[in-house]
Design brief:
By secondary structure, the chain is mainly α. Helices cover 61% and strands 0% of the residues. It is globular, with a radius of gyration of 18 Å.
Amino acid sequence: MGGIEIMLKSEDVVFDRVICTLEKLEDILIVERNCKSESLIHTVIGSCRDFHDDSNNSATSEMLLEELLLQCHCLDFVADYEDTDIFNTAVTVYMKALLEWYAGRTSLSYYDEVDSSVIPIMLVLHRRISLFQLNDIFQAYVHSIPTIEHLHDERFQIFKAEVEEWIYGRRTWMPIPVLSKNEDVITSHRRGNAVDGYKRIMSSIIILSDTSSPAKILYKIVDNYLPQVAQQVSHINEETIDRAYEMRTRIR
């Protein structure tokens, strides 16, 4: 294993812990919503990489949110590469892994803190925020998310349906090929294809965030580092994101 692989593997260990925390938070929130039938695939929980013993100390959603913030700080540390080529490779493989994991949530009919958590995670992976900004970002988008749920329920559901119809479209998408050169380095967290994960994340951000900035950052990251994903949903761009937020303004 060469130098690049060693550095990517260091990030892989922390990224794996981030996903583990997300999976545990996901399970708890499903129970809290009384949606126990909506069991989702685990890629870390119960594996040899799951170092949490929850048998005698069941975690709460609040505890897991705090742990997720801690793991984001750790991820911020290991995602810092001086070499531009290594940095670009890392953003590509871990953003793709993140999209493939979130694809496993497409069966859920709602959005929650697991969905909004993608905002600080993607910003850390892309080094778009400083360590000192991370707490504020996490607080703003994960703990206390500005939403439009205060709107009349029927009008909100109409808006939500329109956004999701735009995000998901009517085409049948083909899976994105795996980067074979990193197969033995990057732990797989695949629960679906990257395109479906991208659509799920974009939809959730537009619904949950009152500002278009996170959605536009996501679009730019995917367009730059995963163009094969962006090309399959070419109707998602800055102009159409602006239109989605204009729709939000009109229904207030």
